[in-house]
Structures are given as structure tokens and as C-alpha cells.
Amino acid sequence: MYDLLVIGAGPAGISMAVEACHSGIDSGKIIILEKAEEHSFSIKKYYPDSKLVSANYKGFEAKCSGVMCIPDLTKHETISYLDKAILENNLTVHYSETVWKMHQNEDKSFIVYTEKGEYHTKIVAIAIGILGKPNKPDYKIPLKLKERALFDVTTVEIRNSRVLIVGGGDSASEYCQFLTQNGNEVYLSYRKKDFTRMNEINRESLLELEREKKVVILRESNVVALEEKDGMPYVKFQEERFGEQTYDYVVYALGGSTPENFLKMLGIEFDGEDPILKEHYETSVQGLFLTGDLTAGTKGGSIIWAFNSSNTAMRKICRDYLNCKIDIE
Fold first, then answer.
1. In sequence order, which residues have a C-beta less than 8 Å from that of residue 148 and are 6 or more positions away?
2. Which CATH architecture has domain 2-132+258-320?
3. Which sign, positive or negative, has the C-alpha torsion 42, 43, 49, 55?
4. What pLDDT, on a 0 to 100 scale, did the predictor assign at position 89?
5. What is the rounded distance in angstroms from the CA atom of residue 232 to the CA atom of residue 174?
6. Is there a contact between 189 and 253 (Cβ–Cβ < 8 Å)?
7. What interhelical angle do 170-180 and 200-211 show, nearest 10?
8. pTM confidence score
9. What is the mean pLDDT of the chain?
10. Is 153 within 8 Å of 261 (Cβ atoms)?
């Protein structure tokens, strides 16, 4: 049982773990899960080497309230600072590991599932990036189908319906698992024969749903057109054996970054496009916190904002959940 599990190893996630260490929590009771192969992936990938990492960004004052703090630094200096934070605090970071499901127990502790296993923890902090955009198909989606052709499974409540999911990665499997629980008749269109892009957990879960006849997998199928027919999605397949079919909904799982859908699947409530946050960035799920860009709005915040939000969240965690020594005055 961990005291704190952090999802995301960017500046917000690293600072969250550092704040926990400095509050008296043993580093062995803290774990960070990161889907990329290295920490601070966005900085490393998207920042040019010559770009200055500014402490004051988009109007957020560069005033530090927590343990971690930087002035304006180069990209290399920023990465070195974060490297040092991980090393000096003896933080455990599991890379190339994606969280795909979470369950809260009756005692309010959590089980966090990844493709490599499961983790039991008292508190979860989500420190992932801001909202991205899903990939879309090559063909046109009729405007009349905007409530019926979707890119997630939370925007519209789907129950007792005939649903086609298009895709073959982890999101496709997760959508199948989610939709079958709500009494839907689920079909999955995948252009290949074997699922090579899914992690083992999702692949086995999907195949078990097929064995239980809860999901029909249309292997080696290609959707070439989507039309509107009597208000419903009318799908045309390239292959004659699949022909043309009408569904209540079509859900695309073609990749892309959709943190909003991920957060909703974890049970976090939203007010419009924004997650509902209570005191000190706690979500509607007790013991589940957001930090970093997700607390700054859709435009995101600075690295200093990320550091400070971790300190703010840690104050409530210490006060209400864990036996911490952080100054909460």
C-alpha cells in the first residue's frame, strides 16, 4: 500500500512527490507512473534547445510557495534540475506505463491499474498535461451526427444502444469494456486481424468480452464512409461481407490525447469543460487530486504554477489524510 501515487512525471508530478517527501512521507511509500519513456517528455520533445524556460508564464506570478523553485532557465538547466530532484529525493518512477483504470474501495483507498500490474494507494494525484485533440477519420462526418458520432464515451450517456467502435488500440478496448457495462450492443471495427497495439490487460479483457458474446469484433474491416440516415449513423464498409450498417452511435478510438475523457472515466465530475475542484485541488472523488496544468485552466500554467499547485494539494493531503509534517498554517 502506497501513501501517494502520482500519475505523470512532468514538473507537476515530480514536485508532488518531492513535496510528499519533504512532508515526512517515506520515499518508498511514493510512486510515480509515467506513460512516456522519460520524465518531462513534453519539455524534451517540444521545447527547442535554445528556448528559455520562463518562470513567469502567461501572467502567472513567478513566486514560489513550495519546496521546488526555479528562475528563468535553459531547457538543459530545467531538465537537470528535475533530474536532480528525482535523484536526491530517491523517487521511484515507472516509465512506459499507462494508467487505464482506477477503482476506489469502500475505505476510500484506490487500486490503480496499468498494463503492467495494479497498485494500491491511499491518495492519487493526477499531474498530466492539458486537453488535447483526438485523431479523426479521413472521411467526412455529417454535422447532423454530432450527437451520434463521438470521440469519447462520456460526452453523451450511452445506454441500451447499438454502438460501433472504430479503432484497435487501448482506448478501443477500454471503450468496449465501459459500454458493455451499460447494456449496450457493442461492435468493434478493426482494420487488422490481430491486436498488436494493445497492452496485455486490455487485449485479454477484449477477447474475453468476445468470448462472452458481449462484443462482436469485425476483424479486417475498414469504414470508408459515414452518412446520416433517419437521424442515425449509416456506416459503409469497404468489405462486402460487412456491407452497410445502421448504428445508434459510432465512437472513434483512433488515438490522440483526450485527458478530459480519461478524467471522466476515473469518476471526476465536470462543470462544462472544467473539472470540478474543491479546496486545494481535490476533485469530486475523495482523496483524488489534480495538480499542474489541469488546475490552471485550458491554457495551462507555468512550471512555477505546477510546483505551487503541488504544495497546495499537499497541504490538504497532510491535514486531512496522511500523517504529514508540512506547515499548513
1. 231, 232, 233, 248, 249, 250
2. 3-Layer(bba) Sandwich (3.50)
3. positive
4. 98
5. 24
6. no
7. 40
8. 0.67
9. 89
10. yes
